[in-house]
Design brief:
Helices cover 36% and strands 11% of the residues. The protein is an alpha/beta fold. It is globular. It has a 6-stranded parallel β-sheet, with helices on both faces. The chain folds into 2 domains: 143 residues, Alpha/Beta hydrolase fold, catalytic domain (Rossmann fold, 3-Layer(aba) Sandwich), CATH 3.40.50.1820; 56 residues, no CATH class.
Length: 219
């Protein structure tokens, strides 16, 4: 079975076009994070609750790929699929890597940043301001944790325990293609290729699973 994690916004609609093309795939369930919990520790708790079968494939889009990757380190599935995601903090764009020290300041700092962005007059708001506003208040708690977890993610030198398929759009603005080394590149694809290019993404996943001896039916 293929288990897919959604992105930083935990909304299963990102897979609405992909799931019909991958019969038997399911959207993995998130659990509530603990305050200032690292990505690795959170993924360890997720791994404890994951249903297991002999031919499991773990995957995720964007932030969900980070979690799938760390869960795969523990569960050692047949394979791991990263969609619009990265397999190491070293593949993050420079601006994200430069912000990594902010992780040490904790989620309360991010809440303050969100509150400041929320107080910004509407006429002065930009795309960046709108994204920062999502860190504010109780509704921003999940995003604050996820942002802090991403910034605090550290590379690991140990060999990865299973094959990885990395699918990326050539026009991804969140994790620019030039910083990654994907196995499959979707031409002109942005960050939501799971939604905009489901046929190509599904075909890549089916080819990957077939190479592992795991058959996934076409629709």
């Amino acid at each position: 079975m293929i288990h897919l994690f959604t992105g930083m916004t935990p909304d299963a609609r990102i897979f609405s076009e992909l799931l019909p093309r991958l019969p038997g795939a399911r959207v993995a369930e998130w659990i509530e994070p603990r305050s200032d919990e690292s990505l690795v520790r959170y993924s360890a708790r997720v791994a404890q609750l994951m249903p297991r079968q002999g031919d499991d494939i773990l995957g995720g889009v964007s932030f969900g790929g980070f979690v799938a990757y760390e869960v795969a380190r523990i569960l050692r599935p047949r394979g791991c699929v990263l969609i619009s995601s990265v397999c190491s903090p070293l593949e993050m764009p420079p601006v994200m890597r430069a912000c990594r020290p902010l992780a040490a300041l904790g989620e309360s700092f991010l809440a303050s940043i969100g509150a400041l962005a929320t107080s910004c007059p509407r006429r002065l708001r930009s795309g960046s301001t709108s994204r920062l506003r999502k860190l504010a208040g109780e509704r921003g708690r999940w995003r604050r944790w996820a942002t802090s977890a991403v910034l605090g993610w550290r590379p690991v030198s140990e060999p990865f325990p299973c094959p990885v398929l990395q699918i990326h759009g050539s026009a991804d603005a969140t994790f620019p293609h030039r910083y990654t080394r994907p196995d499959v590149t979707i031409s002109r694809g942005g960050h939501i290729i799971a939604l905009t290019h489901p046929t190509e993404v599904a075909a890549a996943i089916r080819g990957f699973t077939h190479s592992l001896g795991v058959e996934v039916a076409d629709r």
